[in-house]
Amino acid sequence: MLSFKVQLFSVLKSKLKADSIDLETPEGISVGEFLDLACAQYPTMEPYRRVMRLAVNQTYSEDAYILHDGDEVAIITPVSGG
Amino acid sequence: MQLSYERIDIPAAYRFLQTPGAGGVAVFIGTARQWTGERETLSLTYESYEPMALKEMHRLIDAAEHKWPIQRTCLLHKLGEVRLAEASVLVGVATAHRAGAFAACRFLIDQLKVQVPIWKQERLTDGQKVWVEGNHPSKPPNS
Description:
The complex is a heterodimer of chains A (82) and B (143). Chain A has a single domain (2-76), classed as Ubiquitin-like (UB roll) (Roll), CATH 3.10.20.30. Chain A is globular and about 35 Å long. Chain A has helices at 10-16, 31-41; strands spanning 2-7, 20-25, 53-56, 59-60, 73-76. Chain A has 82 residues and is α+β, with helices and mostly antiparallel strands. Chain B has 143 residues and is of the alpha+beta class. The two termini of chain B are 24 Å apart. Chain B has one domain: Molybdopterin biosynthesis MoaE subunit (Aldehyde Oxidoreductase, domain 3, Alpha-Beta Complex). In chain B, strands 3, 4, 6, 8 and 9 form a five-stranded antiparallel beta sheet that branches. Chain B is globular. In chain B, helix 2 packs antiparallel against helix 3. Chain B has helices at 10-17, 50-67, 98-115, and strands spanning 2-4, 24-31, 35-36, 39-48, 70-78, 80-83, 87-95, 118-124, 129-131. The chains are: A alpha+beta (82), B alpha+beta (143).
């Protein structure tokens, strides 16, 4: 199993009342599977599943990317800077 | 390129952009708007995933400098509270000719608004605080 501290921002941080969540995953999990698992464990996030991206080591990642132990992960909902 | 909780220093940004090689400087300043339709905003608050935001801003500047012959680029975003009419973002580009300055400036602000992990929360007159949700998910590089 792998353990991740998942950083949250903006609307997800407000809805979950936390700036991070802990997630345990099987080894070899892809980004897409990781986001599905996060939403299954934290259903409050489910309405955002279609538009959320995972940043891995501070870079947007493809759904097929396989996560590794120690990766820095953050869930990014559509941004609204400017 | 900077994220800062301090007020954006517009004259300092312009001084930085001035260079004898440039024949044009395009500057876009985004400001906090009071009315969105019938909704009245009192102030905005910006938060960011700062290390990633700086990386993305750097990547956008690299992309712009690859596309246009830019002499100088300035990309500044304020975080924390922004009062009405205050600048929240400044994009400035100096190029030899105006067409490149306008095009690069437009590219940078448009891309910043969909790629850089910064979020805006509106404080409304009815006391609510509402996160503004962007229209498009961000894209991985080279996708």
